[in-house]
Amino acid sequence: MRQCLIISLILLLSNDICAAPAARTEVDPELTAGYREGDMIISPVQRNGLRADSYRWPDQIVYYYINSNIDRAHREQILIALNKIEVSSCLSFREASKDQKYYVNITSEPGGCFTAVGFQNRVQQMNLQYYPLDEGCFRMGTIMHEMLHALGFYHQQSSADRDKYVRIAVENIQEGKEHNFEKFDDIIVDNFDQEYDYGSVLHYSPYGFSKNGEMTIVPFKAGAEQIMGQRQQMSDRDINKLNIMYKCPRQV
Ligand SMILES: *[C@@H]1O[C@H](CO)[C@@H](O)[C@H](O)[C@H]1NC(C)=O
């Protein structure tokens, strides 16, 4: 049996209430779920796009179940996010029938936003803590972000080549949160020939887990901090990576 660990994510909310550097409490629910990099329940050997085919959803079909305690408006928001992934790829999302053996069990419990990474060949949970629409776990980009984890992707800044694009500013990271900034080996993750992507919906914000309001991920490219951590939509490279991973004919 696969032993699962947990990972998490980052958020921006960088506006300090006090002008002086102050301890900053991470409020992004992608980050506070307390998993390995905030929001991922993962096997220890996986990272940006899992290489192993065993983590791919078979036949490009992703089964899901949206729990009945999720109200209509939130259900719609989830379905819109899934549809955005569907129209950008060759994947199809299907509601799990009673006898479906493997599916993403979409819940809305306390504890932030988190998910298992990659296909697990069993029921795998994806939690979106209840928030008003377009906030917290119910931002469109966050729902897509979590689903991209479930499809087999890790955070952009964990990629093997990230040190060429960003500096992890350890001096600004909250004590004990350094593990959220690990990078992964090329043998395990694949960039699918796409260049490092500051605008990926899977990139942390520059201020994730900051203890002093300063950036924890400092981009080498000037201005890139403006797009890092966006949670509106998949970037073109996110779409390309997804299509290459799932052997879809489509490319942006
Ligand atoms: C989904 O997961 C929750 C939390 O683990 C569990 O209580 C529920 O029974 C699951 N539902 C389905 C249909 O798998």
UniProtKB/TrEMBL annotation:
Keywords: Hydrolase, Metal-binding, Metalloprotease, Protease, Signal, Zinc
Gene3D superfamilies per the UniProt record, alphabetical: Collagenase (Catalytic Domain) (3.40.390.10)
SMART domains hit by this protein: ZnMc
Signal sequence residues: 1-19
Domain (Peptidase M12A): residue spans on this chain: 48-249
InterPro entries, sorted: Astacin-like_dom (IPR034035), MetalloPept_cat_dom_sf (IPR024079), Peptidase_M12A (IPR001506), Peptidase_Metallo (IPR006026)
Cofactor(s) listed in the protein's UniProt record: Zn(2+)
A UniProt-annotated Pfam family: Astacin
Gene Ontology molecular function, alphabetical: metalloendopeptidase activity; zinc ion binding
Cofactor-binding details, from the entry: Binds 1 zinc ion per subunit.
Name this polypeptide is given: Metalloendopeptidase
Annotated source species: Drosophila hydei (Fruit fly)
Lineage, highest ranks first: Eukaryota, Metazoa, Ecdysozoa, Arthropoda, Hexapoda
Name of the gene this protein is made from: LOC111601144
